[in-house]
Amino acid sequence: MLGKAELLETLAPLDRGLRATPEDRLAVQAAVVKLEGRNPTADPLAAAHLLNGNWRLLYTTSTELLNLGRLPLTSLGPIYQALRLEENRIYNLAEVVGPPGLSGLVAVSARLEAVSQSRARVYFERGVLGLQSLLGYSSADQFIVRLQANPKLPLLQGIDFTINSQREPGWLEITYLDENLRISRGNQGNLFVLTR
């Protein structure tokens, strides 16, 4: 599909948005809008066979995520968003690459609640920060299983904290979904482009 190839070509040099100029962001927005107009999945939240699984971030406008790539002596590694619809869960994991033995992980888990065919409320519940080595992190799947099995990780492994349940929930709208590309927009005006 021409629009998809055009978007992927536009994103290739942008390092998930870290290297995007204002002109780049406009070009990405134009390519995204064109592709959203051809969304092949009218009811994405019901398309569990397409939506479930681990998605790797290709591009975002989220400064919260992009600022992880601006920490001193580090670089931003892969960022994953894992959807587990059978459990109504979403997990965000960002790898931070540092000096040997000092690479980190930032993970957030949340509960999803569908409010339309394409939009879900996101209730953030838990955050984990720490060194990958101390957390025993080897992959997104392995760490998600660990989070599911342990309501609280020991302090010596990392900082495991509850996110204020009184906080207003966010939302995530899936505006494009096919077998290997997903485009989503968030309540803070952020754009996310992800691939399998």
Question: Could you explain the architecture of this structure?
Answer:
The chain is an alpha+beta fold and 196 residues long. It has one domain (2-195). Helices cover 24% and strands 38% of the residues. It contains six helices and nine strands; from the N terminus they run αααβαββββααββββ. The chain has helices at residues 2-11, 22-36, 48-51, 63-66, 132-135, 140-149, and strands spanning 53-60, 75-84, 89-97, 104-114, 119-131, 159-162, 170-177, 181-186, 191-195. Strands 1-2-3-4-5-7-8-9 form an eight-stranded antiparallel beta barrel. Strand 4 and strand 5 form a beta hairpin. Helix 1 (2-11) runs antiparallel to helix 2 (22-36). The longest helix is centred in the N-terminal third of the chain and has 15 residues, at 22-36. The model has no long low-confidence stretch (mean pLDDT 95).
Summarize the structure.
By secondary structure, the chain is α+β, with helices and mostly antiparallel strands. It has one domain. The chain is 24% helix and 38% strand.
Keyphrases for this structure?
single chain; alpha+beta; 8-stranded antiparallel β-barrel
Distance linking N and C termini: 17 Å
Residue windows where pLDDT falls under 50 for at least 5 positions: none
Percent helix, as a range, is 10-25%
Helix-strand pattern: HHHEHEEEEHHEEEE
Q: Let me know the number of strands.
A: 9
**Rounded radius of gyration (Å):** 17 Å
| Coarse structural class | alpha+beta
Main sheet strand line-up: 1-2-3-4-5-7-8-9
What is the number of independent domains?
1
Average per-residue pLDDT, rounded, comes to 95
Biggest β-sheet, characterized?
Answer: 8 strands, antiparallel, barrel
Q: Which descriptor suits the 3D outline?
A: globular
Name the beta content range. Answer: 35-45%
